[in-house]
Amino acid sequence: MMRLPATRGEWIDRSRPVEFKFEGQTYKGYAGDTISAALWGAGVRVLGRSFKYHRPRGVLSLANHDVNALHQSGGTPNVRADVTPLVAGMDLTAVNTFGSLADDKGRFLGKLSAVLPVGFYYKAFHSKRLFPMWERMFRAMTGLGKVDLKSPHKRTPKAYDFCDVLVIGAGPSGLSAALAAAAQGADVTVVDENAQAGGSAGYQLGNDNGRRQQHADLLAKVAAEPRIRVLTATYAAGYYKDHWIPLVSAERMLKMRAGSVVVASGAFEQPAVFHNNDLPGIMLASAAQRLAYRYGVKPMDKAVVLTANADGYRAALDLLALGTAIAAVVDLRTNPGKAEPLAHLLRQSGIEVLSGHCIVEARPDANGLCAGARIAALRADGTPTAQTRDIPCDGILMSTGWAPAANLLYQATTRMRYDRAVEQFVPDVLPDGVFACGRVNGVFELERKLADGARAGSHAAAAAGFGSASGAALPPESESPSHPWPIIDHPAGKNFVDFDEDLQFKDFCNAVQEGFDNIELLKRFSTNGMGPSQGKHSNMNGLRILARLTGKEPQQVGTTTARPFFHPVPMSILAGRGFHPERRTPLHSRHDALGAKWMPAGVWQRPEYYQLAGKSRLDCIRGEALAVRNGVGLIDVGTLGKLEVIGPQAAEFLERVYTSNYANLKVGMTRYAVMCDESGVVIDDGVVARLADDHFYFTTTTSGAATIYRELSRLNTMWRLDCGIVNHTGAFAAVNLAGPKSREVLRSLTGLDLSAAAFPYLAVREGEVAGIPARLMRVGFVGEWGYEIHVPASHGGALWDALMKAGASHGVRPFGVEAQRLLRLEKGHIIISQDTDGLTTPLEVGMEWALKMNKPFFVGQRSLVAVSHKPRKQQLVGISFPAGHEGPVPLECNLVIEGSDIAGRVTSIAWSPTLKRHIGLAFVRPDLAKPGHTVSIRLTGGSMVQAQVSATPFYDPDNLKQKEAA
Amino acid sequence: MKIMTCPLNGPRPVSEFHYWGEVRPMPNPATASDDAWADYIFNRNGAPGLKKEWWCHTPSNTWFIAERDTEKDVVLKTYFYEGDQ
Questions:
Q1: DSSP class of residue B22?
Q2: For the purposes of burial, counting CB atoms within 10 Å of the CB of A695, is it exposed (0-12), middle (13-18) or buried (19 or more)?
Q3: What CATH number should be reported for the domain holding residue A410?
């Protein structure tokens, strides 16, 4: 067991042991452990296998970058062991193994590294002949974990919240920022991905009681401040415009809108690059400190500390105090610099401090675990001397530098600059309302971090409207916390730069030699930073290598793009409910009761047809159509857009937006209306009814209801005519009662005079139907005598019931959209956007009659003038098939073929039960448009069928059914 | 998500808004040549920069003008059409 005696502030609860399984073995940890901490505490050293060479890997960062320790937990793949809380009963296995973790058949890949050069994928896939072989092999070897297709559906609702100042990172600078912002009166939310707040203040102690106290005081102050809310185990996954930050926890995403943002996200400790720097036991110094102070786990028995900053000396002092022997401190620099007092303490304890030295390689034992460090002095040029010395140890701490966790700053469009004073990128120009402090801002010393946080917090509060900004940017660090070249070449390679993808130093050299000498190209060719940790521990060294190989400054090399998300976000957190509106008419329940089969029409739900027991879909549709033709039918048309325009210039407005005349429309009459856009394309149609001189009621298509109202509103905003538009679409229910018996049915329900003289074809009347105030329009619609009846929505159900009851003795049948389409097709009526498309002008669909080109203006008029001078490309015509036609008929969109050319397409087609043959509409070349002409249509399968161009309407061409005899 | 300020309803998430397009003066249909008219109908300037556009706050059907810097992705100001300078 590697558990240390309990220390103050540790995160584990030793009174609550937790039992779990890993690779079939049972282990014990404590509540508060992460999986890796529990395993390491139980003496397990190999937590997973590396992706490419299947090398054994242990703890590297313990900070969400240990992507070689990915575990399958029941049905959940790729659980990150270094940060995932331990849960009792977990049954874990390492994901990237063939066989088992201990006996991984993939180990041989390490021996093959010489024939797996950088860019291997690209090179392998280059040969078409070998592609299938490589593909099979790669598919078998890549992809981590197993998805459980039977895992239960999980609801993950989103949460939404607001705060004045959002502080990202609960380390010393972030907490200091929060306190300063709260002191100015701002409501502050602090978010941190760790299970508890405090950040590095909790473990980078150097065994210094003053620091312990400072940490405790800071947390106490934050806890006592009511304006600060701390969200732990939650990470800011991205930065979106206007301070919109998704905060992701295990359960949900919280979308936080902040007044201003302080990025105090700290820095990722970076590995040093030397041969075998991946052996289990070799870890970042901060990882060892986290293991020890958070989880009470002894990282190793005997350590060599490789350092290039004061942090390494502190880590040595921490481990020494907790019982780990320190075999030596190896400093890449020529002297300990500001860490001299710490070095002095170490020397006093008899520890050898070797300045100007490096680790050339780590030595493995028979099990592949760290067993020693081979060190050498460094020459002035940074290369090791030939004389080496082996120091036995079971672990190595790496403390040679940091990379700013600047991902969110980049996403917020911060301009960054490389600062040689700290050997990292720091914010140069921050966007409005975004502030940075602490390590991400290039500030490392504890006192300075607190001051920098207070400054950023004050400025952020002021930016959000609280108090005034105080504090100025600090001068740069006097000593760089990062070494500019913590990289040692080795003839045997295996000096890893990227642990996700097993990239070695030489891979970068080869990639650059092959011409991939741009940071973005290098990334994609070498896959550096493309693994699950997204370069958090590899981008900085990759950039340094590229800069050195190309003789550039890091600033010139630049960084790759930091895209959301900061960590991979589970799909279950991203998935959620759709917010697509679905509209239902007031008659929805009536249709349901009648067996309606629903279909979407724009945002509306409409009955496609009504299912009769034992009848097929087509029989139902044709039955409904015949009922209308021979008796009476009732259809819900409440989905139509229903608008009113009122005012002295109402007629003028309609003159401008529709193609026909409305100024001369008599009160009490209706007129068909076509609307074009500015390019002369048909976009909508409907019926305009004049209720008074200054008052029109008009309809739009179902799918156009919302957009047409919106566009008309815009036009009237621009034209400033003396009239107003009211949208009644949802306020009115509407039905169409149609068929030869419709007048009889209606007569029993209304006192209106329905005689042809009093209520002629195309008239509009207001009156009562079944005691309900109603507007009635006598329109053709389906080509029969009929009434469109509009009533207040709340009365829709009563109207429907009354009409169905009154019609019962006449055999009234409700009919759906399919029957309506069939009936209207029989009349040759077009459906906008079914029989027209985004380029169709009225000239191509036989609507010249609706264009009043002599009007002063209508939308689309000028374009139609231009179009009318050009030869027409297509014409919409009726097509029909002989009554005895047997065999297949075309589908909508099947092509008309003339010779070897495409000469048109079918837009609508149906079998007419009234005419007993197939009829349809089709676009054809103008030279084919003459009635009687035979056109060839290619069916989906490729065979051809002949149809005849026909005049429309197919049914009742003189419209005798729908209006009184002249 | 961006915030846009509706002149009637104040700052709202941009998902509540409908973008129409740039405010572009219509040439006189009676005098414009076919080419000039076609240019007005079909050609748009997609280059990033300062744009004056029609926007609509859809829940309240409020049309207004927004001036945006599409290069910097900043809404500079919004105002009613009638308030146009």
A1: E
A2: middle
A3: 3.50.50.60
Distance from CA of B29 to the nearest CA of A (A): 6
Residue A473 resides in a domain:
no
Q: Does A857 touch chain B (CB under 8 A)?
A: yes
What global pTM score does this model have? Answer: 0.87
Cβ of residue B58 closer than 8 Å to a chain A Cβ: yes
User: Per the CB < 8 Å rule, is B63 touching A713?
Assistant: yes
Q: What is the model's pLDDT at position A561?
A: 85
- The reply to whether A290 and A361 lie within a common domain is yes
Closest Cα in chain B to A246: B1
How many separate domains does chain B show?
A: 1
The answer to whether A149 faces chain B, any CB pair under 8 Å, is no
Instruction: Kindly state the average pLDDT of the residues B5-26.
Output: 95
Q: Does B41 touch chain A (CB under 8 A)?
A: yes
Identity of the residue in B18, B38, B58 whose CB atom sits nearest the CB atom of A866: B38
Domains identified in chain A, total number: 7
Q: How far apart are CA A9 and CA A212, in angstroms?
A: 9
Say if residue A64 is in the same domain as residue A80: yes
Q: What is the pLDDT of residues A151-181, one digit of tens each?
A: 787 788 899 999 999 999 999 999 999 999 9
The DSSP output letter for B8 is T
Question: Which domain CATH number covers A71?
Answer: 3.10.20.440
Which residue is it, tokens 């380390």? Answer: A171
ipTM: 0.97
Q: What's the confidence (pLDDT) of residue B85?
A: 42
Q: Does B79 touch chain A (CB under 8 A)?
A: no
Question: Could you give the 3-state DSSP secondary structure of residue A602?
Answer: coil
The two three-digit tokens of residue A446, written as one number:
């504890």
Contacts of A254 (CB under 8 A, 6+ apart): A158, A159, A160, A161, A231, A234, A246, A247, A248
Q: Are residues A624 and A721 in the same domain?
A: no
Residues of chain A falling short of pLDDT 70: 1, 965-966
Cβ contact (<8 Å) for A720 and B2?
no
DSSP-derived letter for residue B81 is: G
Q: Which domain holds residue A367?
A: 271-400
Q: Are A586 and A636 spatial neighbours (Cβ–Cβ below 8 Å)?
A: no
Distance CA A696, CA A693 (A): 8
Q: Is B61 on the interface with A (CB under 8 A)?
A: yes
CA-nearest residue to B26 within chain A is: A678
Mutate to test the interface with A, among B31, B41, B54 (most CBs of A within 10 A): B41
CATH assignment at residue A713? 3.30.70.1400
**A934: exposed, middle or buried (Cβ count in 10 Å: 0-12, 13-18, 19+):** exposed
Domain boundary among A827, A862, A882: A827
CA distances from A574 to A146, A234, A250, A529, B34 (A): 20, 15, 12, 23, 51
The span from the CA of A58 to the CA of A61, in Å, is 10
* A885 shares a domain with A744: no
Q: With cut-offs at 50, 70 and 90, classify the pLDDT of residue B84.
A: low
Indicate whether A961 belongs to any domain.
Answer: no
Interface of A with B in 71-130 (CB under 8 A): none
Q: Is residue A315, in this structure, part of any structural domain at all? A: yes
Give the residue on A whose Cα is nearest the Cα of B84.
Answer: A718
How close A841 comes to chain B (CA, Å)? 15
Domain boundary among A810, A827, A844: A827
CATH of the domain at B64: 3.30.2270.10
pLDDT of residue A966: 54
Residues A321, A344: Cα–Cα separation, whole Å: 15
Q: At what angle do helices A310-321 and A285-295 cross, to 10 degrees?
A: 40
> Which positions in chain B touch A709 (Cβ < 8 Å)?
61
Assess contact for A674 and A859: CB atoms under 8 A: no
> What are the DSSP calls for A823-855, one per residue?
HHHHTT---TTTT--TT--GGGGT-GGG--TTS
